[in-house]
Amino acid sequence: MNINSKESEEAEQIRWQPIVAKYAKPDLGRSLWQVANTLIPYFVLWGLMIWSVEVSYWITLGLSVIAAGFLMRTFIIFHDCGHGSFFKSQKANDFLGRITAFLNFTPYYRWKHDHAIHHATASDLDRRGTGDVYTMTVKEYLAAPWWKKASYRIMRNPFALLGVGPLMVFVITQRIPLPSQGKRERASVWWTNFSLVVVIALMCWLIGWKTYLLIQLPIIMISSTLGIWLFYVQHNFDPTYWDNHEGWDFVKAGLQGSSFYKLPLILQWFSGNIGFHHIHHLSAKIPNYNLPKCYYENSVFHVRPLTLLASLKSLSLRLYDEEQKMLIGWSGLKRYRTQKVEANT
């Protein structure tokens, strides 16, 4: 990269900053209203589900879909708190963040730490592996031993990725502190685990363990699957942007490496506007309720949208081809191998 292009990109980044800065201002009234219109319906639905278990479990399952939507919206509140964007006060962000993270079976400070790394390394081929859905390059996959290839294929299979995977992440993986993490992050895991044991034991005593499981399991299964899908499709889509650290660019990682997932309004509401992910990665300090306004008032953010139908193609994307600079599927890997064999003969 020459000096002129570097200066051009630096100037381009400077132009983004005053634009997004206008929207990176939390509004106390809107934040409190979002807390009310999310948590109150969620707890009311829990009450209705407790009642419905004795009437008809089909009613319970129907209500669990709606409750999962509100739990997903709760996750977005905790997500914003983790970025320090929901309230002006960091203490208020951390207080509400711990509560809403708990509702999602997630240790707040560990997730906050890992997610900050994700924002700093998204689309960087040399810094993958923390807070993201792990993606191998074609060369890495071909050079890997058979057992690593097999485990990677299992992990990227839709059934594992969106079936058993999300439940394992939120119910099991989040319960395990890692020695490599800081003291506060490990303590966050232990305190969350302790709180879950206390609250779950209390709920089982009040309504019975069977009733608790019949309600909690479908809610957490649906919400975690939807959450993992949103996170996956926001960075695994075609075309996208990846680069080695030396050539990695923050603005490109936001505008090209993060999707604008154009969802129907009702899904946009339940997902807390997280579909405007390209703007969110440019400025994580923008509260979720300001993202649509930032998008519609600034044509520079009008990137090619990823529709609900088109996003289904993302399930077939498995590896990143550094030569073609694109994500490919297993069929693309087969063509890659064939082309290499032909080139060497």
Describe this structure in words.
The chain has 345 residues and is mainly α. 65% of the residues lie in helices and 3% in strands. It contains 16 helices and five strands. The protein has a three-stranded mixed sheet with strand order 1-4-5. A two-stranded parallel ribbon has the order 2-3. Helix 8 crosses helix 10. The N terminus is likely disordered.
The strands making up the biggest β-sheet line up spatially as 1-4-5
What letter string, H or E per element, gives the SSE order? HHHHHEHHHHHHEHHHEHEEH
Helical run tally: 16
Please report the distance between the alpha carbons of the first and last residues: 34 Å
Class by SSE composition: mainly alpha
Globally, the shape reads: globular
| Assembly context of the chains | single chain
What count of structural domains? 1
User: Helix proportion of residues, in percent?
Assistant: 55-70%
Beta-strand percentage range: under 5%
Low confidence ranges: 1-8
Measured on Cα atoms, how large is the radius of gyration? 21 Å
Can you summarize the main beta sheet?
A: 3 strands, mixed
How confident is the prediction overall: mean pLDDT?
92
Count of individual beta strands: 5
Question: What's the helix and strand layout?
Answer:
Layout: H1 3-21, H2 28-53, H3 57-83, H4 90-103, H5 108-121, E1 136-137, H6 138-143, H7 146-155, H8 158-172, H9 183-207, H10 209-233, H11 250-255, E2 261-262, H12 265-270, H13 277-282, H14 291-296, E3 306-307, H15 308-311, E4 319-321, E5 326-328, H16 330-343
Parallel strand pairs: 1-4, 2-3
Antiparallel strand pairs: 4-5
Helix pairs in contact: 2-3, 2-10, 3-4, 3-5, 3-10, 5-9, 8-10, 9-10
